[in-house]
Design a protein that fits this description.
about 350 residues; alpha+beta; two-stranded antiparallel sheet; about 45% helix; about 10% strand; globular
Length: about 350
């Protein structure tokens, strides 16, 4: 962020506070995320100042979604002030403690239980038709195309031939069809441990987590956010534990009318396949973040995302062809990468 923009945001923030009878006493910059937004935590006041570049970020949509979610009782930031043309926002600060820092064996069940309750509350909301667009096949396909473009082509420098393009196109179509069969609900699209804020009372009683980075929300497949939570790109858990949490969610979601009655295997397949869509996309995104945006730290998480991807590819007969191709053609190049190490998911 250019120094002149920082100064302008600082002046604007001080003005917003003065109109509330509050005094600007300084701030400190927060470390960046995968997007283009810049955050500053105010001193002595429970607010964040945000610069969201108008060329890449839709702050008006973010504000409208935040307002809707707060009306539904979800813990999201309040919009204190906004200049959408400049990309300036002043929002309430939900806290400093991310879920990611507290996911220990002793606490994860309670934390995920609260997160799943929040997810169910999100999924029963009914926004107006003009608030959120559809997470449709075209959008899913654009996301998956990041995998051949950035991960295969740019990061691995592997040239795909016509047959390989066709194999991937068939796989993408299969995943799109599976996603379309799921119930369509509000999807946060990044519902994971770095976007959930730990909240608790002074008596250390857990409260529903705060939600951030929901500006890309759409109406889409109901298992998507559950995959984001349970097959987190930044932390992994044993398969049996993930399955148990996923089925606990499904039982509650089925009782609330979000999902129809399915056999356990049918639900887990829906969960796995939308997870494959997400992780193919993430392989492309993390490669792009490194190569285009110089955010090389995301390469460290690629082995985990690869492990999730290969775990699903090997389980389903319809994916056997792409699974074999992945091992024969891509893994030799992957194993030569400086960031690679074999990560095996535990049972």
């Amino acid at each position: 962020m250019q120094p002149s923009l920082v100064d302008e945001l600082s002046t604007w923030t001080a003005l917003q506070l003065s109109m509330r009878g509050e005094v600007f006493s300084g701030w400190r910059a927060l470390s960046g995320d995968a997007g283009f937004r810049c955050y500053f935590r105010l001193e002595k006041l429970p607010y964040l100042a945000v610069y969201a570049p108008p060329a890449t970020e839709n702050s008006l949509l973010f504000s409208n979604i935040a307002r809707f979610l707060r009306q539904q009782g979800l813990a999201v930031p309040e919009i204190i002030g906004a200049d959408f043309a400049k990309g300036f926002l002043l929002i309430s600060d939900l806290g400093t403690e991310l879920y990611a820092a507290h996911l220990t064996d002793d606490h994860v069940d309670g934390l995920y239980g609260e997160a799943i309750n929040t997810l169910l509350q999100l999924q029963i909301t009914q926004p107006t038709a003009d608030l959120l667009a559809a997470y449709d096949a075209a959008t899913l396909r654009r996301e998956m195309e990041l995998f051949p473009q950035w991960f295969i082509g740019e990061l691995l420098q592997y040239p795909l031939n016509a047959d390989e393009h066709q194999l991937l196109a068939q796989t993408f179509s299969y995943l799109e069809q599976s996603a379309a069969k799921q119930p369509q609900v509000v999807v946060h699209r990044d519902f994971h441990s770095r976007n959930l804020i730990l909240r608790q009372t002074q008596q250390a009683r857990l409260l529903p987590p705060g939600l951030i980075d929901f500006q890309d929300a759409l109406i889409g497949p109901a298992a998507y956010d559950l995959v984001s939570l349970l097959k987190d790109c930044y932390v992994d858990w044993p398969r049996s534990q993930v399955r148990s949490w996923a089925l606990a969610y499904y039982q509650q979601a089925q009782q609330q009318g979000i999902w129809p009655r399915l056999r356990e295997g049918e639900f887990i397949q829906s969960f796995d396949l939308i997870g494959l869509q997400r992780h193919l996309k993430v392989l492309g995104i993390f490669a792009r973040l490194s190569l285009r945006d110089n955010k090389h730290g995301f390469l460290n998480d690629l082995p985990r995302v690869l492990a999730y991807t290969l775990d699903v590819l090997r389980q389903y007969p319809a994916l056997a062809g792409v699974h074999q191709w992945f091992y024969q053609r891509l893994m030799p190049r992957i194993e030569q990468q400086a960031w690679y190490y074999p990560l095996k998911l535990s049972q």
